[in-house]
Q: What sequence folds into this?
């Protein structure tokens, strides 16, 4: 057993920390004050792309050397990068969870606004054909400019109960035609493409689901409306409509054969198993930020001599540390290719509550300073609540856990 | 590389302790409670397997498996019978004070003679509140509850020092005990008992306390786990309103939360143990693990009882016993509140309260 982070990962964390303090947190506060997402042409995004961020995890093709560098210089660079990410290739989930926590520490909203394929990537990786990966993830391998992907499952009438989505797809010649309403999709209005889940027959439930990659500018895709949220303002959560939206058959994820049966739904759910520990870790990051700010405030106001204050800070720290370890374990299990459904849901169920508690405690210690609405802790308090909602609410995590623990029936 | 699996040696130890608990301790749990002792065959078998010795230093014939090894064994034994877990360990938490403050010579002199003595018991009594005064080489005071019916070694620990008190001839007045009766329960009155050894070593005293707290934390995780498992199994059998009670969402969610409680507390225990084994400053981590384990055990055990309803309240099931024992365990070594205070002080003293850097050997 070993819970020590390797040096290479610590170095990456140190770099995120530097970027976080200098850029991520300030732009997050900027968006919060503006009450609007960072615009796609915000210089920060171009900066991230120049730093080599906003890329896909997809390595491209079967042979990792297929785009191999030729010059000595390039080879040296590459071997340095390989050295750094050596651990990551063995443990992509764990690495992702550790980095996600640190990004969220600086600003979770900005972290989601980062260019990249986003939540659209896991279903493409899980279900896409090699050509689809090349077409949709290829441009994210070394992007020329900030690019985004998006993921749209939720509808105004169906959130937790994903099987109840009503967006319809029907085959028409060489194309598919989509009709329906989607909501909450992160980065949708700026995305190159959106992975849209639809049903070819609501009576079939999950078996009727199909996932499509709908590209920007496709006629019938429109009515983008950016929601006004309580927090996490830095990225857009967007509703949109599909009206007779015609999508080529080549954009049906996995092609016709993969999509028969429950593959479509399973693909979506699998991607959640991978991302749940990540959301948990982001909650820990927000909670940690709140705890650190609270400690700093309490220290500067001479409150740390009060045992009641210490007790409550201690409780917060302990809950966050336990939550962090649960997230780490779930991700590590995924990297070991071991079942982690129970552990992933556990992490996602526990962490947001610990984080909310940390932020709520911070507000309480701030007192009226928190009531003013201009303190970082106040923003964290608004941001953190979403973590118990997105990618399966706390209740849904408990339903999933109970299926594992006591075979709770799906009624 | 990060690794949540126990090393093969520890995994084997865990398996052995688990089997020993399930096959030999759990079936006699009520018997041991009534007898205020673990039967001689089980005492001998546990010594033979070397369960308590797993974490002892090699000089005592131990396997030196460290704080993590000790936590693993204690959790497994407590998951079968928490009182027996104490009774099976001749050195108990006293070994921590001897090792941390007196080192090898102290272990040889004071712990050595207990090994191989059937049914021997040692105890580490917390004296941070000065309930016992040490003056002129004599100890005076009262220990209201020691979970033992005999004492071969008594060590007193406070913030800065530890003292070995002559145990031979100490009057032990038997008590009913709120729980852990398989280990015995006595009041100990010290009336001028000779002090045989004394060490002042604040750092060692802190580490000894940290280790003793981590023992309690591991035991609490074991009790909580046992209660969570038993109530989950029960909830699948018991039918009400036409379905297993586990399939009513109020209980399904509770069962899920109980599982999270146990796993989260265990991870804090293992994290703290790894820090101890890596010679890091782990006082705060051990104190926090104790507080968390106590808090979660006091969430899990009464709710487990609740899941059994009236059947949980009667003694046909061990749940009522475990609830009492979870409460009792968390009163030892100065109790949870003092641990919370220490963890809080450690937190506010550090600049990086939740620093990402992990622990343990690279
Ligand atoms: C900031 C933000 C970003 C988001 N980003 C995306 C995105 O990028 N893409 C996307 O597709 N979606 C996104 N979502 C949507 C999100 O996934 C849903 O909000 C979430 O799944 C809950 O669905 P709902 O809001 O419809 O609530 P409902 O499903 O209506 O739930 C309402 C309440 O009922 C409870 N409940 C429901 N079913 C049960 C049950 N069986 N047992 C017990 N309780 C139950 C829920 O826990 C909740 O408390 C986002 C949401 C937010 C807030």
A:
């Amino acid at each position: 057993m070993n819970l020590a982070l390797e040096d290479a990962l610590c170095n990456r964390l140190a770099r995120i920390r530097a970027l976080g303090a200098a850029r991520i947190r300030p732009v997050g506060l900027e968006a919060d004050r503006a009450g609007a997402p960072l615009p796609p042409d915000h210089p920060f995004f171009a900066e991230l792309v120049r730093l080599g961020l906003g890329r896909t995890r997809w390595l491209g093709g079967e042979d990792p050397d297929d785009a191999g560098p030729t010059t000595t210089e390039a080879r040296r660079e590459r071997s340095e990068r390989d050295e750094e990410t050596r651990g990551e290739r063995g443990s992509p989930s764990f690495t992702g969870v550790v980095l996600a926590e640190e990004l969220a520490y600086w600003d979770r909203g900005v972290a989601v606004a980062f260019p990249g394929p986003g939540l659209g990537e896991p279903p493409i990786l899980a279900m896409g054909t090699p050509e689809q990966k090349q077409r949709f993830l290829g441009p994210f391998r070394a992007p020329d400019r900030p690019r985004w992907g998006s993921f749209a499952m939720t509808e105004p009438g169906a959130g937790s109960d994903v099987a109840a989505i009503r967006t319809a797809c029907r085959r028409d010649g060489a194309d598919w035609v989509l009709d329906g309403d989607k909501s909450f999709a992160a980065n949708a209005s700026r995305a190159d493409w959106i992975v849209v889940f639809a049903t070819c027959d609501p009576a079939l439930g999950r078996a009727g689901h199909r996932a499509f990659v709908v590209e920007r500018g496709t006629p019938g895709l429109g009515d983008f409306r950016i929601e006004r949220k309580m927090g996490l303002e830095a990225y857009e959560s967007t509703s949109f409509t599909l009206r007779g939206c015609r999508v080529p058959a080549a954009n049906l994820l996995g092609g016709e054969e993969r999509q028969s049966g429950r593959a479509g739904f399973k693909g979506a759910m699998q991607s959640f198993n991978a991302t749940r520990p990540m959301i948990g870790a982001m909650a820990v990051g927000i909670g940690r930020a709140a705890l650190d700010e609270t400690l700093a405030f309490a220290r500067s106001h001479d409150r740390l001599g009060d045992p009641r204050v210490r007790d409550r800070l201690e409780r917060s720290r302990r809950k966050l540390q336990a939550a962090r370890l649960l997230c780490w374990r779930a991700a590590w299990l995924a990297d070991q290719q071991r079942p982690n459904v129970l552990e992933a849901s556990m992490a996602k169920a526990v962490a947001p509550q610990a984080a909310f508690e940390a932020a709520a405690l911070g507000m309480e210690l701030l007192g009226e300073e928190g009531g003013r609405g201009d303190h970082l802790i106040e923003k964290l308090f608004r941001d953190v609540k979403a973590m118990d909602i997105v990618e399966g609410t706390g209740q849904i995590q408990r339903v999933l856990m109970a299926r594992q623990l006591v075979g709770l029936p799906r009624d | 590389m990060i690794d949540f699996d126990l090393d093969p040696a520890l995994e084997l130890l865990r398996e052995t302790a688990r089997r020993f608990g399930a096959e030999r301790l759990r079936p006699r749990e009520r018997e041991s409670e009534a007898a205020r002792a673990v039967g001689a065959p089980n005492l001998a078998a546990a010594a033979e397997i070397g369960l308590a010795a797993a974490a002892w230093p090699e000089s005592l014939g131990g396997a030196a498996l460290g704080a993590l090894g000790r936590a693993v064994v204690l959790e497994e034994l407590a998951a079968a019978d928490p009182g027996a877990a104490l009774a099976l360990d001749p050195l108990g938490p006293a070994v921590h004070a001897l090792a941390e403050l007196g080192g090898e010579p102290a272990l040889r002199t004071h712990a050595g003679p207990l090994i191989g003595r059937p049914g021997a018991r040692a105890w580490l009594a917390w004296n941070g509140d000065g309930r016992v005064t040490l003056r002129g080489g004599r100890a005076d005071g009262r220990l209201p509850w020691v979970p033992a019916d005999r004492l071969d070694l008594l060590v007193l620990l406070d913030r800065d020092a530890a003292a070995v008190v002559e145990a031979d001839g100490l009057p032990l007045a038997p008590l009913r005990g709120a729980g852990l009766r398989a280990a015995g329960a006595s009041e100990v009155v010290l009336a001028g008992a000779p002090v045989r050894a004394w060490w002042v070593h604040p750092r060692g005293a802190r580490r000894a306390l940290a280790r003793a707290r981590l023992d309690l934390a591991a035991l609490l995780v074991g009790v909580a786990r046992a209660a969570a498992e038993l109530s989950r199994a029960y909830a699948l059998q018991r039918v009400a309103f036409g379905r297993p009670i586990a399939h009513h969402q109020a209980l399904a969610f509770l069962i899920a939360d109980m599982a999270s409680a146990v796993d989260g507390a265990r991870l804090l225990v293992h994290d703290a143990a790894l820090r101890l084994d890596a010679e890091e400053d782990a006082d705060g981590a051990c104190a926090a693990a104790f507080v968390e384990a106590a808090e979660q055990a006091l969430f899990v055990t009464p709710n487990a009882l609740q899941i059994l309803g009236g059947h949980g309240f009667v003694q046909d099931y061990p749940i009522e016993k475990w609830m009492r024992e979870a409460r009792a365990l968390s009163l030892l070594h100065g109790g949870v509140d003092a641990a919370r205070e220490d963890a809080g002080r450690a937190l506010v003293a550090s600049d990086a309260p939740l620093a990402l850097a992990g622990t343990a050997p690279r």
Notes: Residues A 119, 151-154, 159-161, 184-186, 229, 232, 237, 386, 389-391, 393, 395-396, 399 surround flavin-adenine dinucleotide (CB under 6 Å). Chain B touches chain A through 51 residues (CB under 8 Å). Confidence is low (pLDDT under 50) at residues 357-362 of chain B.
